[in-house]
Amino acid sequence: MKKYIALLCAILMLILTACNNQPSMDNNTDISEQPKEEQQPDAPKETNPINSMEKLTDVDGVISVTKQTFSKQINGAVAYKVMYETEYGKIAADVVLPDDYTNENKQYTVLIYFPQVRTYIESLASNYALNDIIVIRPYARGNGDSEGTRDSGGAKDLADAQKLLKIFDSASFIENSKIFVAGSSEGSITALRLFAEDTEKRISGCAVVDVISDLAAYAEFRGDGITNLMASLIGKTYEEAPQEYELRSAVNFCQKIDRPLLLLHYTQSPFFPVEQADALYNSLKNTNNDCTYNKIDALSSDFTGESQQRLLSWINQHD
Q: What is the pLDDT of residue 26?
C-alpha cells in the first residue's frame, strides 16, 4: 500500500512540475497577441520649396538668377535676370516683381510679356510690378543674352516659351496665381501660340496688340523687305513651305483659343493693317464669347499709354 501511495505522489509531482513549466496566460507568446511596434508617422513632405527668385536655380534648366539694379530709384519693386536652357540654347528673361512677392499673405497675378521692342526693367516696374503684377519678359533668341536666331513664333520660339512657363510654374510664389500672356507684332505670334498650345489651361487669358494673325498675308502687305526677312528666319518662302507660315497664323488655330482674349488695334499704324485684327476677331467671334476687340485711334505704341491701361483693366476684370 505504501508503494502505491509513493507512486501516486511521484506521478502528482511530475504533473505539478509540467504545469509550472507551461507559459503563463499573462505571458502568452502567440505572435498575434504581441504588441506591434508603434510606427512613426511619415514626415510631411515639403511642397513647392521654390519660394524666392534665388531658389529658382533649383529648378531643372535654370542656369542662373541675378538680381538687377534699376537705373533710377523705384520703391516697391525688384528685378532679376534669369538664364535658362532649352534644347535650342540659352535664353534670358527679365523678371520684375513687387518687392514683397515672397509674402505668403500676398498673391500676385503673373504676366508673360512678348513685346516687339526692347522694354527696360524700369518701365516693367512702373507699368506692372507697381500695379501688383509679376511680369516676365523673355528675350527672343538673338536678342539680349539669348542665344541663336528667332524663328518668328515657330517651333523653337514656342519651345522656349513653354519651358519658361514650366520653370515659373514650379515657384510657390505663383502657385495659385492667375497667369496671362501678352504680345505685340511678332511677339503676338508667340503669345497666341503659347496660349493655344497650353493644354493644361494654366494660362487664364491672352492679350495682343498690332497682331499678326495671318503671316503670309502680313508679309505680302509689307512687301519684299518683310517677305525676305520671314523667309530668312523661317528658312523657306511661303511657296516652299506654306505649312510653316500657317502654323504661325492664329486664324488657322483659332479653335484652340477658347479662353479670354483681348485684341487691340491702332488704327493709325502704317505697319499693321486692320485686316489682320479683323481676320482674327471674325474667326473667333462665333466660338469665343470672351473675345474683346478694341480699336484705338492712334499710332502704334506696343502696350503703353491707352493700350496698357486697357490691358491692366482687362486683367483685373478676369483676375
A: 44
Cell numbers placing 125: 516696374
Rounded-to-10 torsion of CA 236, 241, 242, 244: -70
Query: Which of helix, strand or coil describes residue 121?
Result: helix
**What would the DSSP string read from start to end of 286-300?**
TT-TTEEEEEESS--
Tens-place pLDDT, residues 158-175: 999 999 999 999 999 998
Residue with cell 527668385: 53
**Residue 55 gets which letter from DSSP?**
G
CA torsion through residues 247, 249, 252, 258, sign? positive
Alpha helices in 128-185 (DSSP H): 155-168
Residue 256, C-beta contacts closer than 8 angstroms, at least 6 positions apart = 196, 197
Q: Model confidence at 46, in pLDDT bands (50, 70, 90)? A: low
The set of residues, in sequence order, having a beta carbon less than 8 Å from that of 206 and lying 6+ positions away, is: 180, 181, 182, 183, 191, 192, 195, 257, 259, 260, 261, 262
